[in-house]
Amino acid sequence: MKVVGLLGQVAFPGELASVPRARRYVRDLLDTAGHRQADDALLLVSELVANSVRHSDSGRRPDGQVTVAVANHDGALHINVIDAGSAEHRPSLRAGTDPGSCTGRGLWLVDELAADWGWHDTPAGRVVWFRLSGG
């Protein structure tokens, strides 16, 4: 039997100031849940929320929002970052990403640290998600 439990979900304005707010929100949820990989989760949420603000319509519209949803799924941590999507940008790994670079490493970090990740479009926008094992 699969056990799925939503720990929390919240929408933030589509602005860079929402990155630390999203990180604090997830940190508070994970502190309560006692998740072992909280540091990885916080880094990846920061990267994905920043990507949403920079590359989706959520960051270009005055009323744009980015939603973060955190759930337990069979002992793993599953996090969705939901935005308005973009016709010009699709999530993809950059070829030849430099691990020492200060920019352009968001999805590379997700790919390196998450047990699994992906994205899909919905009628309302785009969901980029990742899973960390061993809650």
TrEMBL record:
Top-level lineage group: Bacteria
Query: Which InterPro entries did the record assign?
Result: Anti-sigma-factor_SerPK, HATPase_C_sf, HATPase_dom
> What are the UniProt keywords, alphabetically?
ATP-binding, Kinase, Nucleotide-binding, Serine/threonine-protein kinase, Transferase
The chain positions of domain Histidine kinase/HSP90-like ATPase read 12-131
- Any one Gene Ontology molecular-function term assigned to this protein's record: ATP binding
Look up keyword Nucleotide-binding and say if it applies: yes
Name of the protein:
ATP-binding protein
Species of the source: Planomonospora alba
Q: What is the lineage of its organism?
A: Bacteria, Bacillati, Actinomycetota, Actinomycetes, Streptosporangiales
